[in-house]
Specification:
6 copies of one chain form a homohexamer.
Chain A (H helix, E strand, L loop, with lengths): L13 H14 L6 H6 L3 H14 L8 H14 L3 H13 L4 H23 L10
Helix pairs in contact in A: 1-3, 4-5, 4-6
């Protein structure tokens, strides 16, 4: 397969343009991230993913927007997704993540990945008080 | 190998007891989680892991203790570590995580795991503005 | 270690050439993918891996060749293996995968990675009817 | 946190019942899988996940329903999600997966996980013809 | 699908019995591990996997048998495969792994999982001298 | 977030310089790997990670230094960490890993990733003798 390519706004179908327009309005920027331009190769996947992300990351939830971005970033680091690390680092920074907070987030991601394996290898059973 | 077993306080060496005592003082509870009782099979690993966790999860950092626990929990869910999910859910709850917050955390962990793969499969290049 | 390098046909040992010849005959193309040229650094690993792939992907199995390639591609996407995504996308396309099918495959890979984590985090027990 | 528990139909809110009813109609069975009863702890997560799964796994797509189930199962095996393996094995079997097909699926999941790592370790660059 | 079940020696086909016999001769024990009894549901998968494991773990290689078992165990811990941890711990122990060695192995598995993520999150480029 | 950048020796704080100096003394080389220059953005993370790596990889343990490096490399390959593969391949080679040993290590990493999934998909229970 030729590698998928980005669908730019001007070349997009009305169905895709509608998603791009909503994104621009919600995010208050004309820039559309590459992920959306590639998902646009499958308009249903684009729409569904955007609707889900919009709902999950909505600012009126029980978790504040900065913490939400940091959780998204932490998973992306744990999965070694370079693209996701770049974009969610930027998003978290724009919502207030400082370099010190990033360092602590990284320390937790690293430590959790370490202790998750220690638990497996030592076959640690769940304490009765947590079960 | 026979499966490793827990080292209880009374059977522990002075080196291990010292870690257990510090844990009880810091955590203000007599209960010692199973993970530590199993790591105690290797006193150096026990001490080093405890010192690191204590420093990483310290309450005086740039990230507040509840958010730290939620980050730890999110990674543990992403890695499907049953033991870690049980203990860090309890810890996060004790620091203020509500069921609504847990639901939103889960939604982010799920969504990030989904979009991390969409990015790989569509081979999405990093936008120039993030590089 | 200097990074491993490709073993081209002309520089290959008779043992490696024999595998390359078999590949060319089976795949009906002179092109040998880079993965094989790198595995050729260990001729036994090359031979064993090729014999296994040939048997697993054989066209006379219970699963048709296109579906086999799509399964291989799906795992490669889930594991974020860039090389594997490029080569197995091409192979699947050559066997009939359309862009619409690729989009649906991606949607399933994403969704499975999401729900696999939801199950872990909510600690969902197996329904009695499936056990 | 006490472990989450299942929300049974009779104890469910109208919002949750609506999803359960849709599920029963679409799936033509009264049985509701445990995953949904646990996600019901967060009605928005339940609804969004169900709507997405319903759309992704719809029978009128470019990929046939059996292949879709096998792709879902393959990812679940690769991620070692016991619950997901049990439920998607059953679903694939009900759509026509035979034991021979399951064996071949497993062989591909295993082989892909193997070769994905061989590619990483040998640092194999993408062939120019696939880039 | 009903969960797969073990194929015991007496109920096995001649093709499967041949593999079991080879195993017993090579491993010098009548016990056949459950993994083989389950793979026997697909005799080709059983034979191919056994032949590969036998070749990979052969005692006459460049890496000694104990180190080979410890590498296998380390990956199994990193992947949190409970069955594999139990069997490869036993195999490594039978070849000379002491509890101290197991503790150090665990420390390395944990540390590598931690630093692998630190590298991703900090987007560390490869030093020119290693490229 | 602008991508993190390397902290060179001359621009480093006294706290960071102290770690760099210790590294140079222990490793008997002036070269400081990029990972440390990036972790130096968070001096506490740098110091803690270095102290842990130094202790875990110490030459006087129960496992010899070459085997330790090969275990670290195996996990890095399994996690597809390109940077880690490059640096730990070089470190293992400098301690005596030959190309034949690398090939066998790779074969084990691949095989373990394969059989770990076979075990999950076939839902293999632990043999009573290992439990």
């Amino acid at each position: 397969m030729t590698a998928p390519s980005a669908i730019e706004y001007d070349a997009a179908s009305p169905e895709v343009k509608k998603v791009y327009d909503d994104m621009r309005a919600i995010r208050k920027t004309d820039h559309i991230n590459n992920i959306w331009k590639f998902l646009a190769n499958d308009p249903k996947l684009l729409r569904r993913t955007w609707e889900s992300v919009k709902e999950v990351m909505a600012p009126d939830g029980a978790i504040d927007p900065l913490t939400k971005e940091m959780l998204y970033l932490a998973i992306s680091v744990s999965n070694s997704c370079g693209y996701c690390i770049a974009t969610h680092s930027a998003a978290a920074e724009s919502k207030g993540m400082t370099p010190d907070m990033f360092g602590e987030l990284m320390a937790i991601v690293g430590m959790a990945n370490e202790t998750n394996r220690l638990v497996s290898g030592y076959r640690v059973p769940i304490d009765a008080i947590y079960d």
